[in-house]
Amino acid sequence: MIAPGRNEVKKLGEQASEIILNMQNIDKKFPGVHALKQCKFSLKKGEVHALIGENGAGKSTLVKIMTGIYSEYDGEYTFCGKKVRFQNVKEARQAGISIVHQELNMMNDLTVAQNIFIGRESKGFFCNDKDINAKAEKLIRDFDIQVRPDELLKNLSVGKAQMVEIARAMSFESTKVLVLDEPTAALSEGEAEDLFKKIADLKARGISVVFISHRLGEIMRIADRVTVMRDGEYIDTLDIENCTTDDIIRLMVGREILEEPKQKNNVKPNAPVVLEVKNLRSSKIKNVSFQLKKGEILGFAGLVGAGRTEVMRLICGADRMESGEIIVNGKISKIKHPKDAIKNGIGYLSEDRKRYGLILGLPVGQNMVLPSYDKMSDMGFVNEKKCSSEAGKFIDKLKIKTPGEKQLVKNLSGGNQQKVVISKWLMKNIDIFIFDEPTRGIDVGARAEIYNLMDELAAAGKSIIMVSSDLTEILRMSDRIIVMCEGKVTGELDISNANQNDIMRLATKHEKEGH
Fold it and tell me: Cys-Cys crosslink for 18: which of 45, 78, 79, 236, Cβ 3.0 to 4.6 Å?
């Protein structure tokens, strides 16, 4: 079923005028950081209100106050006409505010029903699965999730798991406000459509939705209003009917952002091949072959499940190949472990940077120097002064927003975390960068900075493979485009004659269709 468009969604909430949540003069400080400066936000009953801003703008801090994660702040917070100061998430939820985080807060080894009703099982020594399964079955039908209540969560797609978490949030009968933090970041197009339909259903029931997203297209489609934040300050609130994406971008970043498609291939005609992959095979990959030239940005496009990430994991030694060859600078390379890839000058920037690219509990500087300890050591001992000096250079070079190299990397915004991962490989002097979804969860301003950095790397002779599900990004950055479907390469396009229609045609070129 196709989700309703913006006009249809808006009609469901045109009657909404009652302010259900109001935050005024919200001020929040952390050591060395003034996170929120006299911010405000209001939410009407039955509306979808988008909250947007660059990474580090203060959105997450405001939402954490809204949902009871932070209780220490200055300012006035009113909910349902009463002044409130939630001391924890439980208090906010009991009052009627639930949040679905970008990183799903679920337990993979429990069932759907157990995840929905965790902490609210039937009283007694034993958990009554029959009882919670029956309750979950009703929610599953109401939300049209199409899963079994006794199915383990780890067997579900990200989209299904997210709908389960939304069902859990809405299983509290008191819920009046649902906060969705980057809900479509890891969803396929079809799963996103299902989510938009569900948001429309919630809106029709009078539920208010705070929608946090970096994807301006979907905000223009489903939101009634949008509040823009920048550098911890409230900038403006706009009615979606009376603004454009350009208006929002200007407010977010205070400058124009160029996202026009690349017009021509920038690789030199005689550029040498630095990486050649021949007949790469695994359980999910079928005879994938391609070449990467020096100074080239090679885009990999395809739908979710096409096998792009699987190819990159084989190249960097994270997974074992069944057969095939990886040739680096003309020499066959035996890459069986990520260490082998690094020795061959290949650095992998995972789509899940928090899980695979960073150690969140360590400082920025330590994250940067991890692969380069051999260069940072004297007689077997790490030279802390040298580490600190090198980290400082890259913080300045990449304009990473942090109080210093000793700041824990988990406290940085998504865009700045990505820059730390890039710094790690620059410090190691890697020649081949594999960027897997380089701007996922990153705002438009930080995205432009990442693009500029990638262009600079290519101009300096580095070579880049970029996996992206964002066709605008593929067309903005790539010199050439490899398209995959069901584990196979289905086509190759030069940027000079590439367009979204041709990419999608190749991305849906299934074997069963006889192409």
Answer: 45
